[in-house]
User: Fold this.
Amino acid sequence: MKRIILSLAIILTAGMSAQAQTSEKEEFARSYEMAQTGDPVHMNNLGKCYYYGRGVAKNPEEGFKWFLKAAQKNNVNAIEMVAFMYGHGDGTDFDLLECIYWDRKGAEMGSGYCMCDLGLYYIGENVILYPVSYVDEDKIERTEIFKDMKKGIEWLKLSARTGYKFAQLHLADLGEKW
Assistant:
């Protein structure tokens, strides 16, 4: 009896995996077709397909291109990914100024993620996430953003009020209420 149950479980799992792969390939094909028309939602979806390897080979660089196209059309989800990718050098070169530019744009559109990122930059916590070799002192000085605790806490509070849990945790660590 145990063998039968185990065999059924294996068959069902394999079938579900094959179905998920087919579904991902269909999602990729649909997103690719619609992204060609300039639809920012599908451009963002296509970026996800490439970035995570859903229905297509994983290709963060190609994902970044599609996220950027969607971000330029004000898709807030794509803006968050572009800021993240610039900030981590993932799928594109590390560029702190571009990261901050997109974080500001996303924050203006109400993104809790981007607001939190800006808050962490102002209080100086995000900088330590990057290896020293990536931090270009000239770029940091030109941003004139770092080490303003008051502004940082303001951004974190705005982010927390959107429901963004990471900002809420940071504020709690700082002994601040939102």
Observations:
- Confidence is low (pLDDT under 50) at residues 14-18, 128-135, 137-144.
- The chain has nine helices and no strands.
- The longest helix spans residues 2-35.
